[in-house]
Design a protein that fits this description.
heterodimer, A: 310 residues, alpha/beta, 17% strand, B: 764 residues, eight-stranded mixed β-sheet, five-stranded parallel β-sheet, 14 helices, elongated
Chain lengths: 310, 764
């Protein structure tokens, strides 16, 4: 189980804001480690980073990072469910539920957030919020991730009703099958199918067409990546011409998960690093779809996309 | 029935007689009895078929049968004093305005008629002796003396006039109608003028008259020269930026193979010219296709030049008014980065069938490292195209948390400013890269923003937005129509909070704050502010969190979502100056006033708070639209207690007019105004439709059994009229033929003769 706070609070931190921000983010590209903390506590580290000292003493630096990171965690933990946090940035959110392992890929989504910040213009908070379906704060996060590795008992009727309203109002639910098992009678996948049937009895998941705009919202995709190539396609549920539910069966977050030391949490195969990259690209495309919908289906984009696909 | 001219009986003079039955029995009984007598006679005669020398007997029996029938029917001779009724003739003289057109040197068609009637005193006198004469023109009864007054009829519906003339007879016998006209019909007879024939409907109505119509052609085959714009066809409404067509029909009389340039003008400015080769008898249709680029009432005019010896020159131009409306509001949405505010606004605009949306979102900044270009779906940001050539094609531009500086857009900012002054609606929405943080301070954009900029980072605190005093009634922020202010404020208080405000240095002069965030001071921080900028409008939304209304937990039946939809719908309509949101409204009672209509125009004024403003002075300007744009009339009106005043314009000439009302806005030196256009029709179109129609007059005579002639002395001799066939009986007297002794003796004698003859021949 994760000790992640229920709702994390962070001020906006666009890349342009970094020099003057209250929080400082320091990226050590040599070891590809992400680290962030308060300015006062990490002023020394910032100076070390700028001086290149860390290039030659990175093991010492890693130790310091661990200490500093553990020290700042409690400061991020303040939460008041249902209230707005103090940032207008985009934030990934993870659905919290009982009876199952709701956060099996603890390092996956923060890494995705970092990659989004690194590769796109999206102003994103690196922390991932977690939220119960019945929490009013659910409506602070129009994009909701749902992960799991095992069966779980049925959600409460209140949770089902809240999810129904959430999706109907415009929310996007992304289901990442962390155990990569698609047994409809058992496993997390089966439980999700059962709950989706309760949320929308008249609707069903269907294979997402390879021509769907989801595959071109940012990257031009023809593969899905993931830790395990269980399926070569995505499933989704369309409501009012919008892909409201997306199901990824290949453990996308597992392929993206990386610990504070820069080590990947899981092996990916087959495909290795390519599959990891495809996982990041799929994750970015999913976020872009939630944020821009069918923007890339506008006529003005089509000639460029067709040319590049050729 | 037998008739004779006269019968003398005692002192009375009878002019007619007839045989009648005086029997009191009903006709049915009489017929049955007669039938029985005839049947008996036949049976009897059948028995005589073998008798020799039966001729005498048969004759006696027949005579006896006749006598019996006479006995039953009681015949009598009725003497009558009969007087013949004189048939009526209705003389219909066309006194429409077309009769005032020239017909030869120094004369008009009407003067020809007057001369003809003066020369026809004798035939008219003879006609009056044999018939009852009625005089009419196309509008109703006239006296012969009125023939000498100038023609003033505003229309020439010949068939309608003939039908009315027939009714004049009050059911009494009508010998026929005589129509003196040029044939220039403007009614149903002209419906198939292009084919030079009458419609079946017109023919049926002519035949239904049931009397001969004798037509006397006033113009005849004499030379008449005119080229006219017979018809201009265009839809009453057109869509801006969409192709509309105007069809022009040109018709010539007395000209052959003449090349005529036809020019279409937009309020005096030439739009296009097309040549058309015209000949007599064939209408020529040409089509102008054009794309109106502004909305509102457009005044177009079609012109052809005046040729030598043209009888009518006023029909060489036509004016038409087309209301140009938006098919859709064209919105350009530019977002500095993907965000929920951008996403839900795009979703709203895409779902709005009245919006044509073009979006450009910056998905990658120059600092981002997404990987190889060919593996991305990103396209170049077409800055030059958007903000130069295409900018004028949009109605609203939305800059959403967009920092222009990384895209080298400084050179295009003046274009945006100028476009707003020219009518573009402009919205800047808040975010970390917007307003002062977006580098707009001291840029051309600052000049069109309703807030003064401050280079400061966003405040990220949540707050409850509340409408200002003006915002409570403003068409953008009145989210509870009909609640009259307080209800709207209560609604706002229940809506979800917003989060994040771009700090500003307050409103610029002339701007109006509609929504504010509560602060410790008396004045809240403006969150939504608006301003008129030239012909355009500007709106600042200093928060990036309006989306929180769109994506809110539905506690109150979707109240927040509805508020979001209504807010943006209102905002777009206000930005494009929807007439419903105008603070000064000018409403003519009609779009087209006929020459005898009263021209009433209503002016209403709303204040800066969009409440009716009583007793406010309005500067009214009435100008004629077209080539002569000189001011026709300027005056000042004060609104009444309800903020409304109606004014009547008397004696204004025909043509197209634009009436404008203007006043100073209370909160600034800005001059606000509203305008409308209307058409004042010419007195009549008679002169424009004055082409003589010999073919019509011939057809009328042909289909009614009348005679067509021209203004010749023998015209009266060739009239075809019905003979009088109805008489009136002044008195009568019956002479009974059967009720006397002679009749009885005849019967007795017949019976005796029959008996004697039978005895002599040895029959029983």
């Amino acid at each position: 189980m994760s000790n992640r706070p229920a709702v994390t609070h962070r001020p906006g931190r666009g890349k342009a804001d970094l020099p003057n921000a209250n929080l400082t983010r320091c990226v050590i590209k040599e070891s590809n480690i992400l680290f962030y903390g308060t300015h006062t506590r990490l002023a020394l580290l910032s100076r070390l980073c700028k001086a290149g000292w860390i290039a030659t003493h990175h093991r010492v630096c890693l130790f310091i990072l661990l200490v500093a990171g553990s020290a700042i965690t409690p400061a991020n933990a303040a939460s008041t469910p249902g209230q707005l946090d103090d940032s207008t940035d985009f934030q990934l959110a993870l659905l919290r539920y009982t009876g199952g392992q709701w956060d099996p890929r603890h390092h996956g989504l923060p890494r995705l957030a970092w990659e989004i910040r690194h590769r796109t213009s999206v102003a994103i908070t690196l922390d991932v919020a977690t939220v119960d379906a019945t929490d009013p704060a659910l409506f602070n996060y129009p994009l909701l991730m749902w992960q799991g590795v095992q069966e779980f008992p049925p959600l409460s009727d209140a949770a089902i009703g809240a999810l129904r309203q959430y999706i109907r109002m415009g929310g996007t639910l992304v289901i990442d099958v962390s155990d990569a098992r698609v047994d409809p009678n058992a496993s997390f996948y089966g439980s999700v199918l059962r709950e989706l049937k309760r949320v929308f009895p008249q609707e069903a998941l269907a294979r997402i067409n390879p021509d769907h705009v989801l595959y071109k919202t940012f990257y031009l995709l023809d593969r899905h990546g993931g830790r395990v190539p269980t399926r070569a396609f995505l499933e989704g549920m369309v409501l009012e011409n919008r892909l409201a539910v997306i199901l990824i069966a290949n453990d996308m977050a597992g392929a993206m998960a990386r610990d504070a030391y820069g080590e990947w949490d899981y092996d990916v195969g087959p495909g290795g690093d390519t599959a990891r990259e495809m996982s990041f690209r799929l994750g970015i495309n999913v976020v872009m779809y939630a944020l821009c919908l069918d923007y890339k289906a506008d006529m003005v984009h089509i000639p460029f996309i067709l040319q590049r696909r050729r | 029935m037998v008739q004779s001219d006269s019968l003398m009986n005692g002192s009375d003079t009878y002019t007619d007689w007839t045989l009648i039955s005086l029997s009191p029995w009903p006709a049915t009984v009489l017929w049955l009895c007669a039938g029985a007598v005839v049947a008996s006679l036949i049976v009897l005669l059948w028995q005589y078929r073998h008798i020799r020398q039966r001729g005498g007997l048969i004759a006696l029996r027949i005579l006896t049968a006749i006598a019996l029938i006479a006995l039953l029917t009681e015949p009598a001779i009725q003497l009558r004093a009969v007087r013949k009724i004189t048939n009526r003739v209705v003389l219909v003289v066309d006194r429409s305005e077309s009769m005032d057109l020239p017909a030869g040197v120094g004369s008009t068609r009407m003067t020809h008629v007057q001369q003809f009637l003066r020369a026809s005193q004798t035939p008219l006198k003879n006609l009056a002796m044999s018939h009852a004469m009625h005089w009419r023109d196309l509008d109703g009864p006239i006296t012969p003396a009125q023939i000498d007054t100038p023609p003033r009829g505003s229309q020439s519906d010949l068939l309608q006039a003939l039908e009315s003339a027939k009714e004049t007879a009050d059911g009494k016998p009508l010998a026929g109608l005589v129509l003196l006209s040029d044939g220039a019909d403007s009614g149903v007879l002209d419906a198939h003028a292009e084919k030079n024939k009458l419609s079946s409907q017109a023919i049926a109505r002519l035949k239904a008259l049931g009397v001969p119509v004798n037509t006397i052609d006033v113009v005849g085959e004499t030379a008449y020269r005119d080229i006219r714009i017979a018809e201009v066809l265009a839809d009453e409404f057109a869509f801006v930026h969409n192709t509309m067509s105007i069809d022009v029909v040109v018709q010539a009389t007395g000209f052959h193979n003449v090349r005529v340039p036809v020019t279409l003008k937009d309020e005096g400015a030439i739009v296009s010219t097309q040549d058309v080769l015209v000949s007599e008898g064939y209408p020529h249709r040409i089509t102008f296709n054009l794309k109106p680029d502004t909305i509102g009432d457009k005044i177009y005019s079609v012109h052809i030049p005046v040729f030598a010896d043209e009888a009518v020159t006023t029909n060489n131009q036509r004016i038409l008014m087309v209301r140009v409306i938006r098919d859709k509001i064209r919105v350009l949405q530019v977002a500095g980065h993907p965000s929920w505010d951008e996403r839900f606004l795009r979703q709203h605009l895409k779902d709005n069938p009245n919006v044509d949306l073009i979006s450009f979102f910056i998905l990658r900044t120059p600092e981002d490292e997404p990987g190889p270009e060919k593996e991305l779906s990103l396209i170049p940001f077409p800055v030059d195209e958007l903000f130069t050539t295409q900018l004028s094609t949009f109605d609203v531009l939305i800059l959403q948390d967009f920092d222009y500086r990384p895209y080298h857009m400084a050179q295009y900012l003046p274009n945006i400013r100028d476009a707003v002054h020219a009518g573009l609606g402009f919205v800047m929405m808040g975010g970390p890269h917007s307003f002062g943080a977006g580098g707009y301070a001291e840029s051309p954009i600052e000049a069109i923003l309703p807030v003064m900029l401050r280079d400061a980072p966003m405040h990220n605190s949540p707050f409850q937005p509340m409408p200002t005093m003006v915002g409570a009634h403003h068409p953008i922020t009145d989210l509870a129509p009909g609640s009259n202010g307080p209800g709207n404020a209560q609604l706002w208080a229940r809506l979800p909070q917003w989060q994040g405000i771009n700090p500003t240095a307050g409103l610029v002069p002339g701007a109006t704050a509609l929504v504010q965030a509560p602060t410790a001071g008396a004045e809240g921080t403006p969150v939504i502010a608006v301003m008129d900028v030239g012909s355009g409008r500007s709106m600042a939304i200093t928060t990036p969190s309006v989306w929180r209304w769109r994506f809110a937990k539905d506690r109150q039946g979707g109240m927040a979502e509805r508020a979001y939809q209504r807010f943006w719908s209102n905002a777009l309509r206000w930005l494009v100056r929807d007439p419903e949101h105008a603070r000064i409204r000018v409403q003519p009672a009609q779009r087209v006033f006929q020459h005898d209509d009263t021209v009433n125009v209503t002016f209403s004024a709303l204040g800066d708070d969009y409440q009716p403003t009583p007793d406010v002075p309005l500067q009214i300007t009435l100008e004629r639209v077209g080539e002569d744009t000189s001011v026709a009339h300027t005056h000042v009106l004060r609104t009444g207690t309800n903020g409304v005043i109606t004014h009547t314009y008397d004696a204004i000439e025909p043509g197209a007019y634009r009436v404008t009302a203007a006043r100073q806005a209370n909160a600034s030196a800005t001059r606000i105004q509203g305008s409308a256009t209307f058409l004042r029709e010419f007195q009549s179109t008679e002169r424009e439709h004055g082409t003589p129609r010999t073919d019509l007059l011939r057809a009328i005579a042909q289909h009614t059994g009348g005679h067509y002639s021209t203004l010749t002395p023998d015209a009266w001799d060739t009239l075809r009229l019905h003979d009088p066939d109805v008489v009136d009986i002044d008195r009568r007297r019956n002479i009974e033929l059967w009720d006397n002794g002679a009749a009885m003796l005849i019967v007795a004698a017949l019976l005796v003769a029959d008996w004697i003859l039978r005895r002599r021949r040895g029959y029983a």
